[in-house]
Amino acid sequence: MQDLWVFGYGSLMWRPGFEFEEAVPALLNGAHRSLCIFSWVHRGTQTRPGLVLGLDRGGACRGMAFRVAGRNRDSVVAYLREREQATMVYLEAHRRVRLAGGPAEPVTALTYLVDRAHPQYAGVLSLERQLELVRGGVGQSGANPDYVLNTVDHLSELGIRDRGLEELGRLLRQPAPAAAG
Question: Which pLDDT tens digit goes with each residue over 115-134?
Fold first, then answer.
C-alpha cells in the first residue's frame, strides 16, 4: 500500500495524534488558513461556539506535511475522519502540496477544506468578534484560547507568519477587560 501524505495547517501541526514517518514544511496553493469555523464540539458548543481554523478558498497556506507509512494509511484516515468530521464541517480532499527542500514535483496530500455551505461556516469575522468568541469558547478538547495560542506559538516556532492569528494571540495574552455593570 502506498504511503499517505497529510497536510496540517492548525492543531494537526502541533498535535497530529497519529504515527508518521516524517514531517516536512509544505505549501498548499489555492486555500488559506482562516479562523472561519464556529466550533460546536472541540472548542465550544452550539449555544456558546468557539472558533477553529479551516482552509478557506483562495491564497496559499504554509503548514506541515506528514508522511504516513502505507501500512498505517487506513487507520490514520479513520482517525482523521473521526477527529475532523465530528460535524461534517470539512470537505475531505486531496490537494497538491510542495514540500520544503523536497522534490521539484508536488506531492498529493489529504487535507480538510471548510465547507462554506455548512451552518458552522463563520466566514470572515472582525478581530473583535474573533476575540469574543475565542475567549468564551470551551469544548470537549478544552478552552478555545489554548487552541489559538498553541497554534500561534507553533507557527512562530516554524517561522510561519500569520498576522491575523498573531494579533489575536497578542490580545488573548492580555487580561480580559472587566465587564461593565
Answer: 999 999 999 999 999 999 99
